[in-house]
Please model this.
Amino acid sequence: MTAAAEPLPLAGRSRGGGLVDIAAILLLALVWEIVGRLDVSMFVPPLSSVAVAWWRLAADGTLLRAASSSLVSLVQGFVPAAVLGVALGLAMGRFAALRHVLDGWVNTLMSAPLSALVPVLIALFGIRDTVVAAAVFVFSFFVIVVNTMTGVRGTERSLVEMARSFGAGEVAQFRRVYLPSALPAIMLGLRLGAVQAVKGMVVGEMLISLVGLGERLIYYGNTFLITDLYAVIVTVLVIALGVSQLAQSADRALVHWK
Amino acid sequence: MADVMTAELAPIDRGVPSPSVGIAVESVSKAFGTVTALADVTVRVAAGEFVTLIGPSGCGKTTLLKIIAGLVLPDGGRVLVDGRPVTGPRRECSLVFQDFALLPWATVQRNVEFGLLLRGARAGERAAIARRYVTKVGLAGFEDAYPAQLSGGMQQRVGLARALAVDPRVLLMDEPFASIDEQTRRLFQDDLLALWSEERKTVVFVTHSMEEAIYLSDRVVVLSPRPGRVHRVLDVPLPRPREATDVRATVEFTRLVDNLWKILRKLQ
Model:
C-alpha cells in the first residue's frame, strides 16, 4: 500500500515532507528572532529570550506543575467524551428515531462557539478544576458524535445486504459491517475531538484562571511577563501538536487498509 | 436424516460440493410504492440448471433475484428453494454482487472467509476452505492483498470465491460482470463455466448482455418492463462444455443472439 499523504492541520506529512517541514519551522524561527531583535514591540520578544524563559520555567518546575494539571484535566474530559461520543454516535447512526430527536442539537452544539458555555459550566461545577475537564468534554464531545454517526450512515448498503445474505442478524451486521466501516470516520472524529479538547482545556483554565497552563497564560499576560507568556504558549502548542500526532498514529495503526 | 441435520449446522467441509436443488418462483408480484416491479412472475429452475434473467432496464430482474435470495419479500406469490418456501436469506443460496460488495478493510483471505464466519465456522476450517476457493478462482498468492489493490475482475473473483466457499446449492449472480472490461469478462465467463461444470450449482444469473446470456445459459428468461412479467423463455441448445470450444464463433451462437435481440428490441 502506498502511504497516502493526508494533509492535516498540525500534522507532519509522511517521510518525504519531513525535511521541508523542518526547513519551514527553522525559517519561521529565524524570522521570529530577527523581528524580535528589531525591537518592534515589547510584545514580540526574540525567540532566544523566549527559549531562555522556557528553560527557566521548565527548570523551576512551573511548567511541569501547570502542564501536568492541564493534562490530567485533558484526560479526565477527553476519555469520557470519546467513549460516550462514539457510543452516542453509533446509536444515532443506527437508530433513525434517536437521530431525528438529537440531530439538530448535536449539529448546533458542534458548530456553536462553545466558549460561551464555560460560564454555565462554572455555575454548574463551581470554580474548581472539574470545570476544565467539563470544558474539555463539551469541546470534544459533539464533533466525535457527528463524525461517528456520519461514518455509520455512510456504510455501503450492498455490504449490509451481502452480510444479510449470509444470514447476519442485527448484531452481526453491526459488529462485522457497520462498525469496521465507520472506523475511519470514528478515528477522524477522535482526532478532531482531541484538537478541540486542547482548546477546551486552555479556554476552561483561562476563564477560571486557577489551575494549569491557562492560569499561567492569564497571570503572565496580566503581569506583562511577555517572554514567560510566550514560553507557556509554546508549551501549549507542543501539547496540541503531540495530541494530534498521537491521534494520527492511532488512526494509522487501526485504519491500515486505506 | 443425518444429512438434513448437518445442512442446518455450521458449514462442514466435505471437500465435495453439495448436490444442487431446484427453484420455483410461483406467481410472484412486488411493488415499490406505486411502482409495480414484478407482476405474476412464474419461473422454474431445475436442479443444476443455468438460467439467465434478461430484459430492459427496470424490468425487475435484480428485484426477482433478491426475492429468490430472501433479501426482499414478495407482496404476492412465493418462492420455493428445494421445495421449501423462502421467508428470509437461506443457507442454500449465495449471492454474487454487481459491485462485488467486498469488505475494503479485509484481505482477500478474510473476505472469502466472511460468509463462513457469519455462519459460525471455526477459524481453522474457515482458513482452509477459503484458501481452497481462492486457489480455485485463480487468486492463489493474493490472499493477503486488499480489495483496493486488485482489478475489477480480480475483485469479482473474490466475490465468487466467497459465494462458493459456503458450499451453496444455488448461486445467484446479479450482473456480476457488468463493471468488468470485455477481455477480462470473456476469460471470467469461461472460468465460471468450468467451475460450474465442476460444482454443478443451480445458477440464476442476471445480465444486460445478450451474448453473455446465450453463452452461459441452458435457458434464458426474457422479462418485460414495468411491470416485470415473463415475456419469453428461450432454450439454448448449444453443446457443452462451451468454454473448451469456440462456441462464440459458431453460426448457431450468432443466430441465437440475433433471435434474442429481435425479442428484446420489441420490448424497448
Residues 19-92+170-268 of chain B form a domain with the Rossmann fold fold (CATH 3.40.50.300). Chain B touches chain A at residues 69-71, 89, 91, 93-95, 97, 99, 101, 103-106, 114-115, 117-119, 146, 148-149, 166 (CB under 8 Å).
